[in-house]
Design goal:
Distance between the termini: 12 Å
Order of helices and strands: EHEEHE
Strand content: 15-25%
Mean pLDDT: 97
Structural class: alpha+beta
CATH architecture: 2-Layer Sandwich
Bound molecules: iron/sulfur cluster
Strand order of the largest sheet: 1-4
Shape: globular
Length: 65
């Protein structure tokens, strides 16, 4: 699973980093970025929590071909 953050939608609230600090960080530009290329198996729950907690739906799953 790969996740990306839609910078237009992200409001830099930090909720995602609160539940998934291993996967996301808020940059100096006040947008969150996903720190990992591929979500590791043992971080899937964190990834799901981040998806659930984001108030703007800015975290999106990257479709894999
Ligand atoms: S929870 Fe959503 S809006 Fe808040 S920093 Fe993370 S990606 Fe951005």
């Amino acid at each position: 699973m790969k996740l990306t953050v839609n910078k237009e939608a992200c409001v830099g609230c930090g909720a995602c980093t609160g539940v998934a600090e291993d996967l996301f960080e808020v940059t100096d530009e006040q947008v969150s970025v996903c720190k990992v290329e591929e979500i590791p198996e043992d971080k899937m729950q964190q990834a799901q929590d981040a998806l659930d907690v984001c108030p703007t739906g800015a975290i999106v799953e990257v479709e894999e071909k």
